[in-house]
Specification:
The chain has 26 helices and 4 strands. It is mostly helical. Among the domains are: 184 residues, no CATH class; 138 residues, Tetracycline Repressor, domain 2, CATH 1.10.357; 188 residues, Dsl1p vesicle tethering complex, Tip20p subunit, domain D (Methane Monooxygenase Hydroxylase, Chain G, domain 1, Up-down Bundle), CATH 1.20.58.670. The strands form 2 sheets. A two-stranded antiparallel sheet has the order 1-2. A two-stranded antiparallel ribbon has the order 3-4. Helix 16 runs parallel beside helix 19 and helix 19 runs antiparallel to helix 20. The longest helix is centred in the N-terminal third of the chain and has 81 residues. It starts with a helix and ends with a helix. Component of the exocyst complex involved in the docking of exocytic vesicles with fusion sites on the plasma membrane.
Length: 815
């Protein structure tokens, strides 16, 4: 039962599904019926569905038939009308065909015209489109043409700007064209070309700067010199206004105005030629000589291209190389001042350019870079100056070099560079300058001393007298009272030497100018240098003259007189130095002049030389002595050589009138002592083995002549018989032998009141032995002791006794 119900339910569901599908077929578009039919074929009731479909078709056919039967008459009427319409339509067709044929025949020309019009319209559109496209392309081509023109005319920075506009503004609008693609591909090459060309311009600029650095430096140093002159004028005349002003204040280099410094400038790099100008004309600013536009253009170009760091590194590297070349001095720089000037000009020119670049560009060079270059330049410059200045032996060249170094330092100091080391180095050169001055003045002194006549200066009138007084500080009231012609006590070398010392002081002062030294330092330097001049050079020259073989006694006497007056003039030299340095001698640590010592030493040397010369002259006269030691009788007068010697001494000491008293007295005493000693040596020399009483008596006459000379007072100032004491040894010895007073000598020997106190036992023994040999020579006729021949043995015994006692005295004295 249940199965029957189940089958009935399934049958009902199938029937409902078939009904739904049929409705869907009836209502659905034919194109979309496929899925519906597919659902039928997918099911298992295909046969039943076909039955239902056929039943439905039959139903629809019956409905159609019914409808047709209902409308049949209307259909017939419609067919009848349609047949009528067909006839009319045939007629209309023939008319339309005829009309069309006529129209085609008549419109053939119009069609041709329309085709032509169509072509014209097409061309017009093409032309319009072309114009529009060309309107877009022409600015690009114009910009490209402008770019090429700018590059041809070397306007590289504007060309770079044009290239940027072309790349970013114009080319994107027409980027689909092939020529634009070519341009786009060519842009990097153009940039590289601009970089290369601008770098080439920079290289030309650097090369030109290197070649013309000396001209730039020369101009900058002229400006500094003008500024110094102007400052001096203003300091001397503070109220003077107007006049030409210095074109450029070197201390304000950051405010420099340079023509063509804009990167848009189109002028070529290089240095403008400037003719040498008179000192009265305004010197152009150093920056006016240089066209810096290549640097600015290249800097801007590399900045725009993003390669600024590369450019900065290249510029600094090249300038460092140039700095090393500039700082390399020529090997012969020390020969002329122009060599030093060119060297300084190049250095100044280099740093003037760098200073200007520092203040007119931002970051191309910085202060650290400039300071590094300056430190290197300063050390190399100082080393070069030390080396080359050491070869210089001309003080004028050293002085000119110092002035040039000061100007060099002032110029660079005006641009903000520290120059203290240069001034410290100048103090070293100052010592060298002093040495060259000393050598020069040594030659001057030698010439003065060699050319001097060593005679008092004669003056015939008041004019000459005042001229000498003006040259040398000398005051002598007694000389002023004397009538003309008269003579100064000193010779010409005194005022000449005095004036040369003053000239030396002036020369030392010149070097101290502009060294920023205090008055005390200048005073100390001048005094030390002057002391060296006096103690080394002048002293050596005086000593050389004094020691010359051909310097006579007259010259030596005059030298003593001259040095005495020069010694007195030292206080005037002190006053002279005080006046030019404004430093009082009482100031603490003030160096004193050693002139007094120098002239005293020279005078003492001259005095010693006088004593030596006198002794040599005496020796020369004594070489003429020709005593007959075996003479039996003495002559009637003193020996000729001794008379001549005494006459020479008298005339010589007469010249000593202008010498200080002690000098003349010492010379006289020294001569007498030397004469006495030499005469004693004549008696005692070993070659004289025998000596007669007659020879002793002749020798006694000569000694008496010497004593007479001593008593005559050849030099005033001796008290009593002081000068005679020089011959006391000879006198007592001769008296002892001539008077044969041995008993007194031997009895009083050693007592202060002894008559023969000055007789030495050794001397007496030597002379006794010489006389004894004569007595023993019995073969000689007219012997001195011939009258004692009978008592020869007694005499000989006495002599032997005396000799023995003398030997005893000698031995006891040695013990």
């Amino acid at each position: 039962m249940e199965r029957g119900k189940m089958a009935e339910l399934e049958s009902l569901e199938t029937a409902a599904e078939h009904e739904r599908i049929l409705r869907e077929i009836e209502s659905t578009d034919t194109a979309c019926i496929g899925p519906t039919l597919r659902s039928v074929y997918d099911g298992e009731e295909h046969g039943r569905f076909m039955e239902k479909l056929e039943a439905r078709i039959r139903n629809h056919d019956r409905e159609i038939e019914k409808m047709c039967n209902f409308h049949y008459q209307g259909f017939v009427d419609s067919i009848t009308e349609l047949l009528k319409v067909r006839g009319e339509a045939q007629k209309l067709k023939h008319q339309v065909t005829d009309t069309n044929r006529k129209l085609q025949s008549e419109g053939k020309e119009l069609v041709v015209a329309m085709e032509e019009l169509k072509q014209c319209r097409l061309q017009q559109r093409n032309i319009s489109a072309t114009v529009d496209k060309l309107t877009l392309c022409l600015p690009v081509l114009e910009m490209y043409s402008k770019l090429r023109e700018q590059m041809t005319s070397k306007r590289h920075y504007p060309a770079l700007k044009t290239l940027e506009h072309l790349e970013h503004t114009y080319l994107p609008q027409v980027s689909h064209y092939r020529f634009c693609k070519i341009m786009v591909d060519n842009i990097p090459k153009l940039r590289e070309e601009i970089k290369d060309v601008s770098m080439s311009d920079l290289k030309d600029f650097l090369e030109s700067i290197r070649k013309h650095s000396d001209k730039i430096g020369e101009t900058a140093m002229k400006q500094a010199q003008q500024q110094r002159n102007l400052d001096n004028i203003v300091s001397q005349h503070p109220r003077i206004g107007g006049g030409k002003k210095y074109k450029k204040d070197v201390c304000a280099s950051s405010d420099l105005e340079v023509k063509n410094t804009s990167p848009m400038s189109e002028q070529d790099s290089g240095i403008l030629d400037v003719e040498d100008e008179d000192d009265d004309e305004e010197v152009p600013g150093a920056q006016d000589l240089v066209d810096f536009s290549p640097v600015y253009r290249c800097l801007h170009i590399y900045s725009v291209l993003g390669a600024r760091e590369t450019f900065e590194n290249y510029y600094r590297k090249q300038r460092r190389k140039q700095a090393r070349l500039v700082l390399q001095p020529p090997s012969n720089m020390h020969e002329t001042l122009d060599g030093y000037r060119k060297y300084f000009n190049q250095i100044v020119g280099f740093f003037v350019v760098e200073d200007h670049i520092l203040h007119t560009t931002q970051g191309l060079v910085n202060r650290a870079y400039i300071d590094e270059l300056w430190e290197m330049a300063l050390s190399k410059t100082i080393a070069a100056l030390r080396t080359h200045s050491s070869y210089c032996s001309d003080p004028n060249l050293v002085l000119d070099l110092k002035n040039l170094i000061v100007l060099f330092a002032d110029t660079l100091q005006g641009y903000g560079f520290p120059v203290n080391q240069l001034f410290d180095m100048l103090l070293e050169i100052r010592d060298q300058y002093s040495e060259t001055l000393l050598k020069k003045w040594s030659g001057v002194f030698r010439n003065i001393l060699d050319s001097d006549n060593y005679s008092p200066i004669p003056v015939a009138n008041e004019e000459l007298y005042k001229k000498i007084i003006g040259q040398f500080p000398f005051q002598d009231p007694e000389l002023e009272k004397q009538p003309f012609p008269k003579k100064f006590p000193f010779s010409e070398f005194v005022p000449k030497v005095y004036n040369q010392i003053k000239e030396f002081i002036y020369a030392c002062l010149k070097f101290s100018e502009d060294l920023h030294l205090s008055s005390t330092e200048v005073d100390d330097m001048i005094r030390k240098s002057t002391n060296l001049l006096l103690t080394r050079m002048l002293s050596n020259c005086l000593q050389t003259v004094i020691k010359k073989r051909n310097t006579g006694l007259t010259e030596l006497v005059q030298i003593i007189i001259n040095t005495t007056h020069l010694e007195k003039s030292c206080k005037f030299l002190e006053e002279f130095i005080t006046n030019i340095t404004n430093v009082l001698p009482e100031t603490v640590h003030t160096t004193k002049l050693y002139g007094t010592t120098t002239f005293k030493d020279a005078r003492h040397a001259a005095e010693e030389e006088i004593y030596t010369n006198l002794n040599q002259k005496i020796d020369q006269f004594l070489q003429l002595a020709d005593y007959d030691w075996m003479a039996t009788e003495p002559g009637s007068k003193a020996s000729d050589y001794l008379v001549d010697l005494i006459a020479f001494l008298r005339s010589t000491f007469a010249v000593f009138t202008h010498l200080p008293g002690k000098v003349a007295q010492t010379a006289c005493m020294s001569s007498c002592k030397h004469l006495s000693t030499s005469l004693m040596q004549l008696l005692l020399e070993a070659e004289v083995r025998q000596l007669t009483l007659g020879a002793l008596q002749q020798f006694n006459l000569d000694v008496e002549e010497c004593e007479q000379f001593a008593r005559s007072g050849p030099v005033p100032g001796f008290q009593g018989d002081t000068l005679q004491l020089a011959f006391i040894d000879l006198r007592q010895l001769l008296d002892l032998f001539i008077q044969w007073d041995w008993s007194t000598y031997l009895a009083d020997y050693g007592q202060p009141t002894c008559k023969y106190l000055r007789v030495n036992p050794t001397t007496a023994l030597i002379l006794l032995e010489k006389t004894s040999r004569v007595m023993k020579d019995t073969s000689r006729k007219n012997n001195v002791f011939a009258q004692f021949r009978k008592n020869e043995r007694d005499k000989q015994k006495l002599i032997d006794t005396v000799a023995k006692q003398l030997r005893s005295l000698i031995n006891s004295h040695h013990l």
